[in-house]
Design brief:
The complex is a heterodimer of chains A (256) and B (301). Chain A is 24% helix and 18% strand. Chain A is of the alpha/beta class and 256 residues long. Chain A has a single domain, classed as Glutaconate Coenzyme A-transferase, CATH 3.40.1080.10. Chain B has helices at residues 4-9, 29-38, 51-59, 80-87, 98-109, 124-127, 181-187, 201-204, 241-250, 254-264, 272-279, 281-287; strands spanning 16-19, 43-47, 63-68, 72-73, 77-78, 92-95, 114-117, 137-140, 147-152, 158-166, 172-173, 190-198, 211-213, 220-223. In chain B, helix 2 runs parallel beside helix 3 and helix 3 (51-59) packs across helix 4 (80-87). Classes of the chains: A alpha/beta (256), B alpha/beta (301).
Chain lengths: 256, 301
C-alpha cells in the first residue's frame, strides 16, 4: 500500500508520542497524528486543546480546536486560561506546532511576512503557539517543505525554537526545552546537540537529496547516506483511511 | 432587557471592547451586527480568538486599534478583511500570545496591577511594541529569583457576550467550553449578554455549576435566539458552515465583503428578527444540535 506524503507525516509524528504524554494539540495534521497515536500506540496519552477542552475523546475528526465535536465526552472544560495555564505549570509534556516560516534553529513565524507595521501579508498571529513553544517540555514541528517556509531569516519571531542557538535557549528564562523534531513532507529532522541547527535524520521514500536541499531556503547539509524514513504500516494507513480521516481532509495528496 | 440596537446605542465611539467566543463558536453575532449597523467608530478591540466578531467589525471599518493573539477561520483560512485592513495600515495592531493577552484580562478582573507569565520572552512578541503604552516588562521575582514577564492589567470599557440562557436575576448559563468569557466579564466595566433563552431562576439555580457569570456582574440582557449565528453554540446549534463559506467567498474582494454586509446587516439595519427571517426556518431547523452530541452530526439529516 503506497502512502501519500501527508500520511507519512502523520504516521511518523504519531510514533513520537509517549503513553505518558499530555499533548497540546493543534488543528490539522497534529490532530490526525495524535488521534492515530492514541488509537494504535498510546491509548493513555491525553489531548488538551487551547480552546479549554481537556482529555477529549472525539468519535469524529474535528476541523479545529474549537470544533464542537471535541466537547462531548471530554474529561473537563477548563476555559482557555486554565488549559494554557497547564503549559505554564509544566504539565504539558508535548506540543505540536506548524508555522508559515521556520528558521534553521526551529524558530517560527505565524504573525506577518514583511515589516510588522506595514506587512506584505498579515498572518493569524501566535495564538497558543508561542505559549506552547515557550513552555511545553518537548515540541514537534510539523510543516510542509518549501523555500518560502524555510527562509534564511524570519520576518517576525512568533514562537521560540533555539533562538540563536542551543546555548541561547538554555540561557533564556523560557521553561520549555525547545523542539525535538521537525517532520515535513520530505523527511524527518532533528536539531544538532551542540548548535541547535536543523539536521536531516531521514528522507521519505522516493525523496532525492537535491529535492530537500532545493526546498530549503538556508544551506542544509544532507549526507549521501541518509536513511529512508520507515514507511507507514498497513495498520497505520488503515486507521487513517477508514477511521480517522476517511474523507482525506488532511491526509489526501492535495491537502495543505 | 435590551434589543441589540439599544445595545449598539450604548457603545460610544472610541470604546475599548472585548467579545466572547472561540473560532466559529459562541461569538455574540447579533450584538456585533447591531454595532456594524450603527457604524460605531474608532473602536479599540482586544481579541483573543473571536475571529468572526473581529472580522465583521473590521470589515465594516469600525476598529482603529487591535490587540490580538490569534484571528483565523478554522477549516477555512485567513480572515481576509482583517488581513487587508492591517496590510493597508488602517488598523493598528499589537500582538500577544493567547496566554499573555488572557493574563492581562485576568489581572484586570482580579484587581491586580499586572500579571506574570513565562512565555512571550525572547521573541518579537516581547521586542515589538507598537502601542503608546507599556506592553510588558521582565522582572526578577524577589522570592525565587526567577525571571518572569509582567503584563499590565487590561480593563476594557465593555464586554459583549453570547450565552445559552439567563434568568430574571441576570445569572448566565453556558454549556460547553466558555473560552475567555469569565475573565472578560470580570475585567470589563460594563457587561452585556445576549442569550438564547430567558428562564426562571428556579431553572438556573437547579444547576448552578452551569452558571458562568453571576447576575450582579451583568449590566444588561438581550434576548437573541440564534444570536451566535453563523457561529455555533454547544447543545443549541452548530456553526452554519454554508453561511460561513458564503461570507468567506464574498470576502475575497472588498466589494464582495460590502455586498455581504449590505445584504445581511445594513439593508435590515441590523434587526435580529429580520435577519432570522432572511435565513428562514428551514436553514435554522437544520442547524439544531443533536440532543446527545450537542452538535450537528454529519449525515444525520
Amino acid at each position: 500500500m503506497s502512502a501519500t506524503r501527508s500520511e507519512t507525516m502523520a504516521c511518523v509524528t504519531a510514533r513520537l508520542v509517549k503513553n505518558t504524554d499530555v499533548i497540546f494539540v493543534g488543528t490539522g495534521l497534529p490532530m490526525v497524528a495524535t488521534y492515530l497515536a492514541k488509537q494504535l500506540y498510546v491509548p493513555l496519552a491525553v489531548m488538551v486543546f487551547e480552546s479549554g477542552i481537556v482529555d477529549a475523546n472525539p468519535t469524529e475528526l474535528a476541523t479545529g480546536v474549537g470544533d464542537l465535536r471535541l466537547v462531548r465526552d471530554a474529561a473537563l472544560h477548563l476555559g482557555m486560561r486554565g488549559a494554557l495555564g497547564l503549559l505554564q505549570a509544566g504539565r504539558i509534556t508535548l506540543g505540536m506546532l506548524g508555522a508559515a516560516e521556520i528558521d534553521r534553529f526551529g524558530n517560527m513565524n505565524s504573525t506577518v511576512i514583511g515589516d510588522y507595521l506595514h506587512p506584505a501579508v498579515r498572518l493569524p498571529g501566535s495564538g497558543g503557539a508561542n505559549d506552547i513553544a515557550s513552555m511545553a517540555a518537548r515540541v514537534i514541528i510539523i510543516a510542509r517543505h518549501s523555500k518560502r517556509r524555510f527562509p534564511e531569516s524570519l520576518s517576525y519571531l512568533t514562537s521560540p525554537g533555539f533562538l540563536t542557538g542551543r546555548k541561547a535557549r538554555q540561557a533564556s528564562p523560557l521553561p520549555g526545552r525547545g523542539p525535538i523534531s521537525l517532520i515535513t513532507d520530505l523527511g524527518t529532522f532533528g536539531f544538532d546537540e551542540a548548535s541547535g541547527e536543523l539536521v536531516v535524520e531521514t528522507l521519505h521514500a522516493g525523496v532525492e537529496r537535491d529535492e530537500v536541499i532545493d526546498a530549503t531556503g538556508f544551506p542544509l547539509a544532507v549526507p549521501s547516506d541518509v536513511p529512508e524514513t520507515r514507511p507507514p504500516t498497513v495498520e497505520e494507513l488503515a486507521a487513517l483511511r477508514t477511521r480517522i480521516d476517511p474523507d482525506g481532509v488532511y491526509i489526501g495528496e492535495e491537502s495543505a | 432587557m435590551l434589543t441589540p440596537q439599544e445595545v449598539a446605542a450604548r457603545v460610544p465611539d472610541g470604546s475599548h471592547i472585548v467579545v466572547g467566543g472561540f473560532a466559529d463558536t459562541i461569538n455574540p453575532m447579533a450584538l456585533i451586527r447591531s454595532l456594524v449597523a450603527r457604524q460605531v467608530k474608532n473602536l479599540e478591540l482586544s481579541a483573543v480568538a473571536e475571529a468572526w466578531s473581529a472580522e465583521f467589525l473590521i470589515a465594516a471599518g469600525l476598529v482603529r486599534k487591535l490587540r490580538l493573539s490569534n484571528l483565523m477561520f478554522e477549516g477555512l483560512g485567513r480572515c481576509r478583511a482583517i488581513s487587508r485592513a492591517i496590510e493597508a495600515g488602517s488598523v493598528e495592531t499589537d500582538d500577544y500570545s493567547h496566554f499573555g493577552l488572557i493574563s492581562r484580562l485576568v489581572a484586570g478582573g482580579e484587581g491586580l496591577p499586572f500579571a506574570a507569565v513565562r512565555s512571550m520572552m525572547d521573541t518579537s512578541l516581547e521586542s515589538v511594541e507598537t502601542f503608546d503604552e507599556p506592553k510588558g516588562r521582565r522582572y526578577v521575582d524577589p522570592f525565587f529569583a526567577e525571571t518572569v514577564y509582567l503584563l499590565p492589567r487590561l480593563q476594557p470599557d465593555m464586554a459583549l457576550i453570547h450565552a445559552a440562557r439567563a434568568d430574571e436575576d441576570g445569572n448566565i448559563q453556558l454549556f460547553g467550553p466558555s473560552a475567555v468569557i469569565q475573565d472578560q466579564v470580570r475585567a470589563a466595566r460594563e457587561v452585556i449578554v445576549s442569550v438564547e433563552e430567558i428562564v426562571p431562576s428556579r431553572v438556573t439555580r437547579a444547576v448552578p455549576a452551569s452558571t458562568i457569570v453571576p447576575g450582579f456582574l451583568v449590566d444588561a440582557i438581550v434576548w437573541a435566539p440564534f444570536g451566535a449565528h453563523p457561529t455555533g453554540l454547544f447543545s443549541y446549534y452548530g456553526a452554519d458552515k454554508a453561511h460561513l463559506e458564503e461570507y468567506y467567498e464574498a470576502s475575497r474582494t472588498v466589494s464582495g465583503t460590502n455586498a455581504y454586509l449590505e445584504r445581511y446587516i445594513w439593508s435590515i439595519e441590523g434587526d435580529h428578527w429580520e435577519y432570522l427571517r432572511h435565513l428562514g426556518p428551514h436553514r435554522l431547523a437544520h442547524l439544531r444540535a443533536d440532543p446527545y452530541w450537542g452538535y450537528v452530526r454529519e449525515g444525520a439529516r
